[in-house]
Amino acid sequence: MPREQMPEFSSSVKLKYVKLGFQYLVDHFLSLLLIPIMAIIAIELLRMGPEEILNVWKSLHFDLVYLLCSCFFVIFISSVYFISKPRTVYLVDYCCYKPPVSCRVPFATFMEHSRLILNDKPKSVEFQMRILERSGLGEETCLPPAIHYIPPTPTMDEARSEAQMVIFTAMDDLFKKTDLMPKDIDILIVNCSLFSPTPSLSAMVINKYKLRSNIKSFNLSGMGCSAGLISVDLARDLLQVHPNSNAIIVSTEIITPNYYKGNERAMLLPNCLFRMGSAAILMSNHRSDRWRAKYKLSHLVRTHRGADDKSYYCVYEQEDKDGNIGINLSKDLMAIAGEALKANITTIGPLVLPASEQLLFLLSLIGRKIFNPKWKPYIPDFKLAFEHFCIHAGGRAVIDELQKNLQLSGEHVEASRMTLHRFGNTSSSSLWYELSYIESKGRMRRGDRVWQIAFGSGFKCNSAVWKCNRTIKTPKDGPWSDCIDRYPVFIPEVVKL
Amino acid sequence: MDLLCVLSSLLISYLIFKIWKRIDSKRDQNCYILDYQCHKPSDDRMVSTQFSGEIILRNKHMRLNEYKFLLKAIVSSGIGEQTYAPRLFFEGREECPTQQDALSEMEEFYIDTIKKLLERNKLSPSDIDVLVVNVAMLNSTPSLSARIINHYKMREDIKVFNLTAMGCSASVISVDIVKNIFKTYKNKLALVVTSESLSQNWYNGNNRSMILANCLFRSGGCAVLLTNKRCLSGRAMFKLKCLVRTHHGAREDSYNACVQKEDELGRVGIHLDKTLPKAATRAFVDNLKVITPKILPVTELFRFVLSLLLKKLRGNPSKGSTAVAQAAPKAGINFKTGIDHFCIHTGGKAVIDAIGYSLDLSEYDLEPARMTLHRFGNTSASSLWYVLGYMEAKKRLRRGDRVFMISFGAGFKCNSCVWEVVRDLNVGESLGNVWNHCIDQYPPKSIVNPFLEKYGWIREEDDHDTFKIREEAM
Prior knowledge:
The complex is a heterodimer.
Chain A: H1 13-27, H2 29-58, H3 64-84, E1 90-96, H4 107-117, H5 122-134, H6 145-148, H7 156-178, E2 187-192, H8 201-209, E3 216-220, H9 227-241, E4 246-253, H10 265-273, E5 277-284, E6 295-304, H11 309-312, E7 315-319, E8 325-329, H12 333-352, H13 355-371, E9 388-391, H14 396-406, H15 414-423, H16 430-440, E10 449-456, E11 460-468
Parallel strand pairs in A: 2-3, 2-4, 9-10
Antiparallel strand pairs in A: 1-5, 1-6, 4-5, 6-11, 7-8, 10-11
Chain B: H1 2-27, E1 32-38, E2 46-47, H2 49-57, H3 64-75, E3 83-84, H4 87-90, H5 99-120, E4 130-135, H6 144-152, E5 159-163, H7 170-184, E6 189-195, H8 208-216, E7 221-227, E8 238-247, H9 252-255, E9 258-262, E10 268-272, H10 276-295, H11 298-314, H12 323-327, E11 341-344, H13 349-358, H14 363-376, H15 383-393, E12 402-409, E13 413-421, H16 452-456, H17 469-473
Parallel strand pairs in B: 4-5, 4-6, 11-12
Antiparallel strand pairs in B: 1-7, 1-8, 2-3, 6-7, 8-13, 9-10, 12-13
Pathway (chain A): Lipid metabolism; fatty acid biosynthesis
Catalytic activity (chain A): a very-long-chain acyl-CoA + malonyl-CoA + H(+) = a very-long-chain 3-oxoacyl-CoA + CO2 + CoA
Domain FAE (chain A): 82-369
């Protein structure tokens, strides 16, 4: 995205205050208009004096019938208004999976395994080391037990047991936290991109928790790291149609069957970055949940760039020349992510930006079209629309790129960087780990708006906007509970191994 | 005073307007099938019983008992001589498939069907607002839905969902998603693409419960255009009346009836348990319990309740029940009062027989399902649409008729829905109907397998040591 280059005097303080004043004026336009009107009415009332006011009141002929009718109409209008409003969708609570210490993969372990498995390909081992040094991952990320074997044993049974471990632990925690009975779940959506056995993972969850037979279950797969937000979209659409329902979303990625065993460079990259993790989320549209829910869903925008060939082929599963299946990440990934983000922002901007920013953007657009095409386009300041940002921890480069494009400060992307450091790239569940980080740091206040952005294969960019419903106390449990005090850590460019 | 009157009348008229708008908006929430296109693979992919025998024989791990079992299964399956298999079976590579094979199998299907569907309806791919793809046994990155979007250059703001592993009932689940989206968003066009990927799912071991799946499934698929646009409702074929989903995953025996797992030697296959028919029956009965009150007229329900009460008073258990009756109890209720046509998932001859018995259906009612099983085999989730195509080709569908779709899936699920025919459907219009070329030959005089004689000898062959099947059969 092109940068804004304002002339020299913009850096002066005076202009900053002018901009602030302009923003205030435009954002609160309607209320500012109301003040003079109310002032006039107040002056009139004061002028008339109490006897005249009483006369006016008496002359209105308030019959009982009139009174009753007007009350009835007022009640009727308000009830029709409330019924026809789209149902608010609440995020009641969510739980992220914290892997056991025995699954940790510090750098030393990873490199040793890599040397043993790829012992006849030193160049690939060196490549993996270079990636790991610059990856932004920490020493506490985890891989499933089957991958710890040398060589890894990715059987279907092991994959199923990893799925059971990550999904059931997260769901058990969620049930405890929210006091939800399994019988009360109406909608279940499970998304896991790379592993889909028959019967589906959603059937596995239904079997374990003995869920009702008229449950609406859906199993999405193949949709990449943005599948978590696609599940939220589906849950929202279903909750609009079915009143008083609970929806559980399980977002995970099962690593076991997808460990790349070959030595093609571009396909070794996911081995270094993807780690195990999962999240279970409870959403509902019960009105009674509006007191205990953590967030309200404001907007959700999905953008699919599959029509463009370059975007489509940038994350592609294929076989290498030896027949090993792996995921090929193209070198243009950053540029394509930037393009997808631009397309997504074009749709979400008008929904979330304050009126002042939109007006400035419109003016600069008009200016560019009519006066001088050489003007740089105005990039709206998204920091005015959101207090917190959760950028999918796809990798260090993704976070850097987005920080540059959206002109965010280090603190805004801190949640994403620290999640990448502590948990690695957990695919669709990473957004929830990041949200948990912000809560654990005690930064989430009532009314704060959060923007979750995720990218996925295909190429998709999905974003969701949540509004915090109540100030969240620092959680005592959760994935960050034992280490939040150590964060944020400084992550150097290169960690020498 | 006058001001008050004016204000109140304004208020009243606004309220009436709002109420009318809300009632009117209900009309936009209907789910219509605009058109559908089933896939007929090219003739060089036809697999006869003879060829099925050859493919089975290529599996070197099997012994006599397994061969017997499989050949018996094929011969008595109700599957005919013109079903289709993926290309790699003809190249002898079923035991070492590549991912490219699976993808080309899907490409052949969706490029053909979606193109025909859009051309016939004079729509462009960028008109599609919702895309739901369900292929149970294929999981690729990018997903199949992304492949379709890339091939047809669909819009950026398309709502897309990719379902997998939901078994043979996934078609109805996709329609469920579309139905829910239509209730919230107006004027949308949805495309549901349903198929099954067989290329990578050949089991090359010898575990009895897993080899059966090799012989039952055939290639096929369907693309369905759905809409809730009022302007298109005149051109629509069917309207969705109700949809009911039942999931018995909570029961251990139902959940384990159909599981994909590794055998003792680590080869992946789909294990079909002996308790599968019972699990299916239970799920079916539960599903019927929910959907029957929604689709049958009150008089029939009343009559059924009365007959139940009378039976209870008399205390009369049913005598002389056959094996089929034990597996599928008679419903005791006349479904023909509310339903005119029955679209049964062609899971196999036993499935169709069992449903026919329990719903008390005649041969005429079961004919579409039996003929689909014979001509196209068990194409998994898309089989329902082939059965519908048969009914349409036979000119059975008249305006106002109701079609009942029943499907089963792993997990164990039973999903069903009822469609109402919107306008008389005559063959002349459905140029794309896959039955057009051969409908006059159906129903044939006999659907007994011609190889019954040829492979009948295997029932007598008992000696493992002198078993020399290759020379005999070839």
